[in-house]
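Kindly inspect this one:
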Amino acid sequence: YEAREFIVYFPFDQSVLTPEAQSVVTEAAKYASDGKATKIIVVGHTDTSGSPKYNIKLSERRAKAVADALVSQGVAKDVLGVDWKGESAPAVATGDGVK
């Protein structure tokens, strides 16, 4: 098994997993279990609309939602690393205030 990236998207201003996002998490959990993952890194991001303080909290909620879903599907907590970036490091580069 090789390192692989799974991307979970959230609706604007939300941190609840949609059915599509849950499907990605399920795929990632299965991949991790099949390959006996030794490390999984979950990183939450936001866009650049809203305040930096708000966005850091939103990206934290998003990262934790994904991590919690992985754990609920059998991924061991001790292999999870959870981080969040807010708008300081958007997953897709955009101008300030862009959704």
Notes: The beta strands are 40-44, 80-84. The helical segments are 19-34, 52-72. The chain has a mean pLDDT of 92. DSSP finds two helices and two strands in the chain.
